[in-house]
Amino acid sequence: xxxxxxxxxxxxxxxxxxxxxxxxxxxxxxxxxxxxxxxxxxxxxxxxxxxxxxxxxxxxxxxxxxxxxxxxxxxxxxxxxxxxxxxxxxxxxxxxxxxxxxxxxxxxxxxxxxxxxxxxxxxxxxxxxxxxxxxxxxxxxxxxxxxxxxxxxxxxxxxxxxxxxxxxxxxxxxxx
Length: 176
Fold this sequence. Notes:
With about 180 residues, the protein is an alpha+beta fold. It has one domain: Sandwich (protein yfey like fold). The chain contains three helices and eleven strands, in the order H-E-E-H-E-E-E-E-E-H-E-E-E-E. A hairpin with a 2-residue loop joins strand 9 and strand 10 (about 150-155). The longest helix is centred in the first third of the chain and has 19 residues, at about 1-20. The chain starts with a helix and ends with a strand. Residues about 1-30 have low confidence and may be disordered.
């Protein structure tokens, strides 16, 4: 139990640090897909960056955790204000209700059946992402990242050096 709490705390710290920093200076777009092509399927509902959360929330089912307000980093009032958790995915929207970040993972509220691009799921090989977008602009033992149009895509591996997907996060460049 103690190890689980430590792991959860480390993941919260990593998310907090990542949310306040930049990530993609001088990034070049990659792959054939455009930013408008990126989406997740959550409980049968397609969710795209730029969607109105109010218009899609009815198709997402019941939230696994109530919405939480997030304090802006360093007074950045454009930072995401609201986050909604469903099984295996968190959807962030700005103060105007526009979806600005989609994070498919298992540590926010457990496993779910969310799909990236309609077919890729957690536990699949990272090759399934490479088949869609080609080689990443950066890859290491833990992650690989892409710029797709104006969208930053981060794929975290399940374990150091593994070839399975542990998390998929995408958002407009500069939002996180």
